[in-house]
Amino acid sequence: MDTATIKDWHAHVYFDAATRDSAWALRERIEQAFDIEMGRFHERPVGPHPRFSYQVHFRNEQLAPLISWLTLNRGALTVFVHPNTGQDLEDHRDRAVWLGDSVPLNLGIFTKKD
Questions:
Q1: pLDDT tens for residues 12-25?
Q2: What pLDDT does residue 20 have?
Q3: Which DSSP string corresponds to 63-82?
Q4: Angle at 27 between CA 79 and CA 51, to 5 degrees
């Protein structure tokens, strides 16, 4: 595949009730450090994400700076990163990068139903 098929990227910061404040503090630091689009702060599982999460939507040219920054600043939080090519199942299942522990995703939402 040509890397030109990558439209942009998502990072999903996972948290739970015990790490909620840390996740919120990280979110604020991301917003201060980057010109970036932040998604909703979900305090329940949403979509394929089995934990509480929020999305960081970023451009291709922000990949190296953001991932480098998250690697050093995420603390104990898990971050799931994937490209957006228009192939949701493959992007989440085969093309993902994990910072921290990986967790099984709910990939069934990407299965077409007749």
A1: 999 999 999 999 99
A2: 98
A3: HHHHHHHHHHH-TT-EEEEE
A4: 45
CB 79 within 8 A of CB 99: yes
Query: Hey, what are 30's tokens?
Result: 């991301």
The residue to which tokens 């192939």 are assigned = 87
What span, in angstroms and rounded, lies between the C-alpha atoms of 7 and 77? 26
Rounded CA gap, 9 and 6, in Å?
Answer: 8
**Cα 17 from Cα 114, distance rounded (Å):** 37
Specify which residues 57 forms β-bridges with: 10, 37
The CB density around residue 26, as the number of other CB atoms within 10 Å, is 21
